[in-house]
Amino acid sequence: MPRISGSPRGSGVQAVVFALEILELLAQRQAAVGVTELAKAFNTTKSRMHRHLQTLLAAGYIIREEDTERYKVSTRLIALGRAVSDNFELTSVARPVMRELREHLGNPVVLSQAEPDGVHILAMLTGKSALEIGVKVGSVIDFHSTAQGKVALAFGEKETHDRVLAGPLEPHTDDTITDPALLAAEIDQIRARGWASAANQTTIGLNALAAPILDGGGRLAGIIAIVDSVQYIPEPPTAEQTAAVTRAGREISRLLGYRPT
């Protein structure tokens, strides 16, 4: 484990780097580690080490064993690592399929993943048209007014489905569905046919066509979609478009280990 020397560890970027190195060491150890051992590993004082441990403890990334007063990584850090790993695997696996879909249909292709507060955009490939239309990577879009969000409601967690339908459903345009009963009926249709669209429901003139991506356990791992103007993705989308997008979703699912029963 590299040792930090010279610059003060108590502030600025150096403190962040030091905290990350502490987490790395704790993650590599099979058992909890005491303050003295950590201070020795990093060639620093026990008091300085204790301050950094208290910061990580307050943030929830490590826990302290009451009986031994030793430290180890928390389930929060483990969950964060799994989420990063899952996102990386999904994007890596999906990108070749996204390229094939873009080459076949010509529309921008978007990969996203459902989160508690909305659908997180993980990756996007621009379309073949000279006019660039797309969704900003890293942005979070609504459940009720987007094709990706409706797929998440149809194939994702029931808790999210019930919470969103409990409202309120914010109107973005005159075409946004704000009646929970109507949205519930549409979600049932999406679950049955395997795809969703949402023309003019977030922004006038735009549409998206989305399909689910399932993991090896049959859970929703992500959402594949094409996004474009209503001129190029009509409402309803063409049979060729729905076939291509759902096929892409099935192929990525297969690569992630999903096998239909």
UniProtKB/TrEMBL annotation:
Mind listing the GO biological process terms from this record?
negative regulation of DNA-templated transcription
For molecular function, the Gene Ontology terms on record are:
DNA binding; DNA-binding transcription factor activity
- What domain of life? Bacteria
Q: Where does the IclR-ED domain lie? A: 76-258
* Residues annotated as domain HTH iclR-type: 13-75
Q: Does the keyword ATP-binding apply?
A: no
- Give the signal peptide as a residue range, or say none if absent: none
Keywords linked to the UniProt accession = DNA-binding, Transcription, Transcription regulation
Task: Check the record and name the PANTHER family matching this protein.
Answer: HELIX-TURN-HELIX TRANSCRIPTIONAL REGULATOR, ICLR FAMILY, TRANSCRIPTIONAL REGULATORY PROTEIN
Quote the protein name from its UniProt record. IclR family transcriptional regulator
Which species is listed as the source? Tepidamorphus gemmatus
